[in-house]
């Protein structure tokens, strides 16, 4: 299925990993456990975790009980920080081609692109890991109730 919003696999994996770690912020979780929970490659996840560690968002704990945990409090970490740890600074563009090539006074999409970019940035800036506690269920939690839309 095609979507308009494209987020790289690495950035998506980073955000999901951080939401998972935020469920139990003091707990050390292995790469294997995270990869199993998210159904992803351990090798790819390891690279993402290295970038998150370099950005100061997760801490690597060595040893037989080792793994990863949040470096900062979950209330302090925004999704924008996580995204930018993987992708670099989120830049806004007013052209779907990246470089303006039209000779006209307005974009073919009008102000839509600018509006969407602003909405995405506002969401990432305004969403902290502490607000994502309903993304994953903890082991032993009951199934969420089915609500009609």
Any chance you could write out the topology, listing elements then pairs?
Layout: H1 9-23, H2 31-38, H3 42-54, E1 58-61, E2 67-70, H4 79-87, H5 112-126
Helix fraction bin: 40-55%
Assign the CATH class: Mainly Alpha
Poorly predicted sequence stretches spanning 5 or more consecutive residues:
144-149
Q: Average pLDDT across residues?
A: 86
Physical arrangement of strands within the biggest beta sheet: 1-2
From N to C, what is the helix and strand string? Answer: HHHEEHH
- Please tell me the CATH architecture by its name: Orthogonal Bundle
**Beta-strand proportion:** 5-15%
Largest sheet: 2 strands, antiparallel
| Domain count | 1
The CATH topology is given as Arc Repressor Mutant, subunit A
Number of helices: 5
* Overall geometry: elongated
Corresponding CATH superfamily: Winged helix-like DNA-binding domain superfamily/Winged helix DNA-binding domain
The whole-angstrom Rg is 18 Å
> What is the number of strand segments?
2
Q: In angstroms, what separates the terminal alpha carbons? A: 21 Å
Oligomer: single chain
Structural class: mainly alpha
């Amino acid at each position: 299925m095609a979507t308009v919003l494209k987020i790289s696999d690495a950035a998506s994996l980073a955000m999901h990993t951080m939401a998972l770690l935020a469920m139990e912020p003091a707990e050390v979780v292995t790469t294997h456990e995270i990869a199993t929970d998210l159904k992803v490659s351990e090798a790819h996840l390891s690279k993402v975790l290295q970038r998150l560690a370099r950005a100061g968002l997760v801490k690597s704990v060595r040893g037989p009980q080792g793994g990863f945990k949040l470096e900062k409090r979950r209330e302090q970490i925004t999704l924008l920080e996580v995204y930018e740890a993987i992708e670099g600074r989120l830049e806004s563009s007013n052209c779907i081609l990246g470089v303006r090539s039209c000779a006209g006074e307005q974009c073919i999409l009008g102000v839509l692109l600018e509006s969407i970019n602003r909405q995405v940035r506002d969401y990432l800036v305004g969403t902290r890991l502490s607000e994502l506690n309903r993304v994953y269920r903890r082991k032993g939690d009951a199934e969420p109730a089915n609500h009609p839309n």
